[in-house]
């Protein structure tokens, strides 16, 4: 029998040996990467997940529908900036780690309305760090079982002050834009964020770093390149192209389409986070990437080719005929590229997917899950699309 640590009172009444597993707190676990992380985590482990998510437009409990009735997962709607709520969750559930995915994450939205990005990504992260610092300061210095506090017959694993970890999930966009000849971003690159989104993420990374150096909070930071995969909200390039192509709509390519991004399949990002959480050195940052630099226009053509193969159009034309070049994004970063050698060498992490295998799985997933797409295309989604793409036609 497996019980979460917060059930230790009930467990103590049993006479059999009960194994109490620890718990982790995930924030933003109803979003694209966070939900993939939670699903993968619970597929591989019995360690419970408390999932704190504000359920903004980007948070979708439907992504977690397969966990309904699963006692190992609890979704709590709330804000990382709500100190009373976060402190209560930490005190109640005693997690051994916090993994922070919660953020406003879309560059175009940050251009139209930066305020939410400052609130969640900067102020929210600050408040979360303070709540976590309060909890961490109060943790026991060693295992409760060793101190003789655990009831007889219970094999308890309580979080220890030394063992606690706060992992902050961040982006490669904090490093700014590369020219064609620049080497890929290393962890030692200067921060040069260019959009309200990347500036807010950069600020959050600095706060996390400072809470380690000043207060000793045991933190880790990961800076990942562009993700793609299942459950990706169709405001981002790859899912937007799939969804628009199938709907017979234009495929809007910003500017000349030659901006380069470094693409990583979301499940590989999740495995990197698990690895860093497990074995990363405290206070360190780890770049995560799949060595898959591609210009946007190539990505769009790849998506069109896969759709031509898997869901050919009735009239026999290619989806590529829907490609439309539109006005560029203001301040558009030209190139991102991740040097992931530190993570590979220190922690032995490697992505499982190539771009070719990952993008095929992704397109197949969208074809197999039209209901999920339909449900996220609410009125609010349609308002966003008309706001962002109005006046963009080149
Ligand atoms: P997302 O926008 O899909 O999901 C963000 C989630 O956070 C949503 O579920 C939302 O409801 C929740 N949230 C927003 N504000 C919150 C708040 N104040 N309190 C609690 N929850 C809140 O984003 P994503 O693509 O899953 O990205 C997750 C993290 O990974 C972000 O920190 C992002 O900066 C980072 N990241 C994303 C990418 C990418 O390609 N998507 C790449 C590198 C890093
Ligand atoms: P996006 O998925 O928004 O991620 P990010 O801006 O964080 O890299 O965009 C990926 C790239 O695709 C980026 O260079 C902007 C471009 N893009 C388009 O050309 N058209 C679109 O409709 C969108 C959403 C993005």
Q: Give the overall pLDDT as a whole number.
A: 91
Query: What is CATH's topology name of the domain at 20-232 and 264-291 and 335-357?
Result: Rossmann fold
> Main beta sheet: strand number and arrangement?
7 strands, parallel
Helix/strand order, N-terminal first: EHEEHEEHEHHEEHEEHEEHEEHEHHHH
**What is the overall shape?**
globular
Helix-residue proportion = 25-40%
Number of strands: 15
Which CATH class of the domain at 20-232 and 264-291 and 335-357 is shown? Answer: Alpha Beta
Straight-line N-to-C gap = 62 Å
Q: Strand order within the widest sheet?
A: 5-4-3-6-8-9-13
**Count, helices:** 13
Radius of gyration: 22 Å
Poorly predicted regions? 1-20, 143-156
- CATH architecture of the domain at 20-232 and 264-291 and 335-357, please? 3-Layer(aba) Sandwich
Structural class: alpha/beta
Which ligands does the model contain, each kind named once? nicotinamide-adenine-dinucleotide, thymidine-5'-diphosphate
What is the CATH superfamily classification of the domain at 20-232 and 264-291 and 335-357?
NAD(P)-binding Rossmann-like Domain
Q: Report strand %.
A: 15-25%
